[in-house]
Write a structure and sequence with these properties.
Layout lengths: L12 H19 L3 H21 L8 H15 L7 H29 L5 H4 L9 H7 L11 H24 L3 H35 L12 H27 L6 H24 L10 E7 L10 E2 L2 E2 L2 H8 L2 E3 L2 E2 L6 H11 L9 H4 L8 H7 L3 E5 L9 H7 L4 E3 L9 E2 L2 E2 L1 H12 L6 E6 L25 H25 L6 E7 L21 H9 L3 E4 L7 E3 L3 E2 L3 H9 L24 E2 L5 E2 L3 E4 L10 E4 L5 E2 L5 H19 L2 H7 L13
Helix pairs in contact: 1-7, 2-3, 2-4, 3-8, 3-9, 4-7, 10-20, 16-17
């Protein structure tokens, strides 16, 4: 048996000293109830300050008011810990520290790729994070880990509290009488209540001041997540996001009222009536009835490199030639948000706006939509979708079944004989897909979603065929290389369509899904007139190529009218002679035989363009504070010149959200509002 004094000498003496020091701190925390909470507030306050620096969102530097709001939010997130006994309180605060640090870190990484903050719907998609490993690695920076500067210390302290803390507090606790014990419980309750009231006052007093003045309507409108963060702070934003998600998915049995449903139906019927009028008079309605449709969604393909060369070579030679014999829309914009590729898929095929937070494919896959594949299937088409990745990614297995595809050809259907980037290289993907398409009964609709040009744009040296000059070694240089590869792969796809005898009876549609997420504007010098011009930046980020090659090569040329992804399905249905006179879609046909009235393309976060003006919303969400530009030269106009169209854009977003969230297409149908009526006057 070891003598008790032996513990203070010999090889274990250092541990004994450390043990006594840790025991002393534990007794201090036990005696001074709120000291640990105070240290927690200071630590988290420093972290949210550093978090703001890491984001570096323009015009959103942390002010004194922001610091007060953040302090209030930290107290509201942690006041309850004071109700716990000493050891439980310390473990709770340490766990909360680590959890909040992880959320802030995830926000930083997510923002660098998506220019947005993580939300509950995005967290529900965490099964995809493992697949994003390569991209996430490129977004990490050493300074990010300051968010975890205290992690090692507090984790080791937590281990001590759990392992030895009970023993080291035993003597002190054994001397406490029943009366003292109840008094200590009362002190904990009083301190917890005080922390809550202080936090509530600091947070809501300043928040209410903002929402009553410059941020009026913050929680009623379709505000950008960063706008909410700008007012409510990092923790406040996530608190509101949890509340918003719970209200939408758990507490709101009927998210859209009967009056709102009626207003939305009228709005959708007005859009349908305009399309109906066009169908009655347009020569291109049903001009390509029963044609095959082959649609290609190209990953991260943007319009700015079309027609450009570098190192003596064209970046997109195949597309440059194809545009000459196709209807090319030079003012076409993607309309995606957090759902990125899945948003493009939804907007193009279902002609509704995506969600500003999360992905429709995941949040609302069970709802009813009138998407292109289901419409064509009803007409006897064979409808299939091809994508060389895991079927569960973006919940595609579920959503594609809802969209009524006959078959989803995912990664498991392909031989991985050309591994590039995330999965199968585009050349092999198109070749193997065409092996299936060539055998499909006609007419068919085939939707191909490419993948090689996905961030972080990595190709083996043998596939890098461009001399990217000053961009060599940069992400922009790598991006141009993958686009050049993707362009060559498209050439092989077109050659195969021709050799199979399909080119002359197929409508071929190609578009980019979203921007490339490259925000270093120094790399865009050769592609932009002025890299510092806000409107030119916005246009470049949002512009993606879109072309339609018709079976007879007719109607080729460049069309300058503004268009967006919501217009693709109405355009194809118009050419095929399928009526869009029912209130199921928001878009309208782009390729027609007559001049159209001014139309606007609305972005998910509130920006819009009609081809003449370009509106960029303010971070504070107030329409009057947004910036109104002329679209051709970037001249800044009075914001009043854009206000009427801004209201129309906001109305579209609100109505689309009601349709998606409230599952209103099903409701319209049940009410008999969208029953198809045969019209002998139509072609």
């Amino acid at each position: 048996m070891i003598h008790p004094m032996a513990e203070s000498i010999g090889p274990n003496s250092n541990k004994s000293w450390l043990r006594r020091a840790l025991g002393f701190t534990l007794r201090v925390f036990d005696r001074w109830v709120a000291l640990d909470l105070l240290l927690f507030v200071i630590a988290m306050g420093l972290k949210v300050y550093w978090f703001n620096k890491l984001l570096s969102v323009p015009y959103m530097d942390m002010t004194d008011a922001d610091k007060i709001i953040e302090t209030g939010a930290i107290l509201l997130a942690s006041f309850w810990a004071l109700l716990l006994p000493t050891r439980g309180r310390l473990i709770a605060l340490i766990s909360l520290n680590l959890l909040l640090s992880f959320i802030l870190y995830a926000d930083v990484i997510y923002y660098r790729y998506f220019q947005d903050l993580i939300t509950v719907p995005v967290l529900l998609q965490l099964g995809q994070v493992e697949s994003l490993g390569g991209s996430i690695h490129t977004l990490m920076k050493p300074e990010d880990f300051r968010l975890f500067a205290d992690a090692l210390i507090i984790i080791l302290y937590a281990v001590y509290v759990l392992w030895r803390g009970r023993t080291d507090l035993a003597n002190r606790l054994s001397s406490i009488t029943r009366a003292i014990r109840w008094r200590r419980i009362g002190i904990r309750i009083a301190c917890s209540a005080a922390a809550f009231m202080l936090g509530f006052s600091l947070f809501f007093t300043n928040l209410n001041h903002a929402t009553d003045t410059w941020a009026k309507g913050l929680f009623e409108k379709n505000w950008w997540n960063l706008s909410i963060y700008n007012v409510a702070g990092s923790l406040g934003f996530h608190g509101y996001d949890v509340y918003r998600y719970a209200k939408l998915n758990w507490f709101n049995a009927e998210p859209v009222s009967a009056e709102q449903r009626s207003d939305t139906q009228r709005f959708m019927e007005e859009r349908a009536a305009a399309r109906d009028e066009l169908e009655r008079s347009d020569s291109l309605f049903a001009a390509y009835k029963d044609s095959n449709v082959l649609m290609v969604q190209v990953e991260s393909l943007q319009a700015f490199m079309i027609g450009q060369s570098i190192g003596g070579k064209e970046i997109t030679p195949v597309l440059n030639e194809l545009i000459k014999e196709s209807a090319y829309f030079s003012n076409f914009y993607h309309q995606t948000a957090q759902g990125r590729t899945s948003d493009a898929d939804f907007a193009v095929n279902c002609s509704l706006q995506p969600m500003k937070s999360g992905s429709v494919f995941i949040q609302y896959a069970s709802h009813e939509y009138a998407c292109l594949p289901s419409q064509l299937k009803n007409e006897g088409y064979s409808v299939n979708v091809f994508h060389p990745y895991q079927g569960g990614f973006w919940n595609r297995n579920v959503m594609y079944n809802k969209m009524k595809y006959d078959q989803f050809y995912s990664m498991k259907h392909y031989e991985m004989d050309e591994r590039l980037g995330w999965s199968l290289g585009d050349k092999s993907f198109y070749r193997q897909s065409m092996d299936v398409i060539a055998e499909l009964p006609q007419p068919f609709h085939s939707f191909l979603i490419s993948l090689t040009s996905h961030h972080p744009y990595s190709l083996p040296a043998a596939e890098k065929l461009l001399d990217t000059e000053e961009l060599t070694g940069t992400m922009m240089g790598d991006y141009l290389q993958v686009v050049h590869y993707a362009d060559a792969a498209l050439g092989e796809l077109i050659d195969r369509l021709k050799s199979e005898g399909l080119w002359d009876n197929t409508i071929f549609v190609l578009y980019g899904d979203h921007d490339n997420s490259i925000q270093n504007w120094e790399w865009y010098t050769r592609f932009m007139k002025d890299t510092s011009n806000e409107m030119e930046r916005e246009q470049l980020i949002k512009s993606v190529p879109m072309l339609i090659h018709l079976p007879d090569g007719a109607h080729a040329g460049t069309y300058e009218k503004a268009g967006g992804q919501l217009d693709v399905t109405p355009t194809l249905m118009h050419l095929l002679g399928l009526s869009t006179s029912e209130p199921k879609w928001l878009g309208s046909p782009l390729l027609t035989g007559q001049q159209e009235e001014t139309r606007i393309v609305t972005q998910r976060y509130g920006s819009w363009t009609d081809g003449h003006r370009y509106y960029i919303p303010s971070a504070d969400g107030l329409s009057a504070n947004g910036k109104c530009y002329t679209a051709d030269n970037g001249e800044l106009l009075d914001s009043a010149a854009c206000l009427p169209m801004t209201e129309s854009a906001q109305l579209e977003l609100m109505m689309s959200d009601r349709v998606v969230i409230g599952n209103l297409l099903r409701t319209f149908k049940n009410n008999g509002a969208v029953e198809a009526i045969a019209d002998p006057a139509k072609p």
